[in-house]
Amino acid sequence: GVYEGIARVCFEPRDLDRVEPGDILVAPLTSSAINVVLPILGAIVTDRGGALSHPAIVTREFGIPGVVGTRTATQRIPDGARIRVDGERGVVEVLA
């Protein structure tokens, strides 16, 4: 699906404290550490990962859009930016 929301760039589990309901998690990769915020996320974007990676699996399980394996999302998406995630097309756009 497609989702628009605020990007929260998180490099470490302690960064997850800044995530608010509806935010889009932008991270190098995910692990079980994100389980505490999964129910409130609008979407997930990661630098690394493939079809069988943790972020790909949890986005399918939770029914939220996700784009994995972008290589540079954490570098190119500013924390707090409004972005659109199109999980079907594998496209992430910075809106503002």
Structure description:
This protein is of the alpha/beta class and 96 residues long. The chain is built from two helices and six strands; from the N terminus they run βββαβαββ. The protein has helices at 54-62, 73-76; strands at residues 2-9, 24-27, 43-46, 66-67, 82-86, 91-94. It has a six-stranded mixed β-sheet with strand order 4-3-2-1-5-6, covered by helices on one side. The radius of gyration is 11 Å and the shape is globular. The two termini are 20 Å apart.
Compact overview of the structure:
With 96 residues, the chain is of the alpha/beta class. The chain contains two helices and six strands. Strands 4-3-2-1-5-6 form a six-stranded mixed β-sheet, with helices on one face.
Number of helices: 2
Query: SSE order, as H and E?
Result: EEEHEHEE
Radius of gyration: 11 Å
The assigned structural class equals: alpha/beta
- Biggest sheet layout: 6 strands, mixed
Q: How do the strands and helices of this protein lay out in sequence?
A:
Layout: E1 2-9, E2 24-27, E3 43-46, H1 54-62, E4 66-67, H2 73-76, E5 82-86, E6 91-94
Parallel strand pairs: 1-2, 2-3, 3-4
Antiparallel strand pairs: 1-5, 5-6
What structural keywords apply?
96 residues; alpha/beta; 6-stranded mixed β-sheet; 6 strands; globular
